[in-house]
Each structure stands twice: as structure tokens, then as C-alpha cells.
Amino acid sequence: TMQAKKQLITLGSDGELALKSPDGEVRKLLSPDVHAGRAFVYLVIDCSGSMEGNKLEQAKKGSLDFAQTALASGYEVGLIAFNSRAFHLCPPVIDLKELLVGVNRLQAEDGTDLTPAIEAVIHRLGEKSNAIRAMVVVTDGVTANPDSALIAADKAKKMGIAILAIGTDDANSDFLSKLASDTDLATKVSSYDLEKTISSVAKMLPRGK
User: What number of H helices and E strands is found in the chain?
Assistant: First the structure.
């Protein structure tokens, strides 16, 4: 019979507990308070009529760049679009190709109501209470009912879902600051910088314990 490989518990270079196998490979032991180290983030993209053209193209490219970085740091990435309603385009996945299908379905039309989109994230991630959870909201305008959006955002934050907010053009800076988990996680940028900003915000996602 093959002898089972012995694994020794050791301290990793960062002082975290790790498993060391006989061939010297060190694997991190995930901290028990993060369920199997799982982490989820939803991109919540404004697809109202005013996003048509360059802004939506930048949002698509930025979303894919964002997803690559997020996937590399252990996140599963999902996609929700919103205009007057919310559209769940992709559940959190670890395969960029699956996300790309959703991103390619983004098209600009109609008005802007963020509330159903935040509620959709709560519905999808609410149960996953022992994982890291976040959403990144991208919008270029004023939502139909800012008060209800902030009430939904507060509910998400109380559940431990982090909110990062990126606004451009007619988005209101004060609203973005209240929407985000922290004022540092709210950014108002020129529409020319939208792709770059969506991409770079992946580095600001919550890290594991």
C-alpha cells in the first residue's frame, strides 16, 4: 500500500499557520472564520440610456480587468446590470469566460434605479455570512430614489457586505460617499478614466482575516 504523505503544521512566512508536505510545499491553512476562504464580489453596472457608447465600452473593459485581478486574489465574481430594473447576468464564478458572456450582454437603455440591484446582491450573498462579500457599484447618474438606495445599502453593510462606489458625469459625490462602506471607497471620476478606475478598485477589495 502507498504510504500516506505526512503533512506537518508549520508557520508560513507571514506567520500564518500552514501545512508543510514532505516535498517541502507549504500551503496556507485558511482561517476558520472565512468559510473555506471563499470571497464573493458583484459588479453592479449602470446600463441606463446615458451610459450608451464610450462609457459602456469602458465599463465592459474595466469590468473584465477588475475580474482578472479579483479572481487572482481569490474572489468569485458576479455581474448585475441595472437601469429602471435589475438584471442578474452572472452568478459569482471563477471562470472569466463565463463572466464575459454576461459582460457582452450589457446594453444601455432606460432610466436609473439602483435599489433593486442592491437588493439583488443582498438576495444572492445574504446567506453566505461566513465569507468575504462585496459589491462594486458603477453609475453615471442620479438614481430614481436615492433614499431607498441608501436604505438598501445600509442593510447590506450591516450584513457585512462591503460597498465600493464609482461615479462619473452626473453621479452625486455626496450620494456615492454615503453609499460606500467608507468615504475612501467612493470615487468620482471623469468618464475618460472609467475603465482604469473600475480596473484599479479591485486592489481595494476587502482581504481575508
Answer: 6, 9
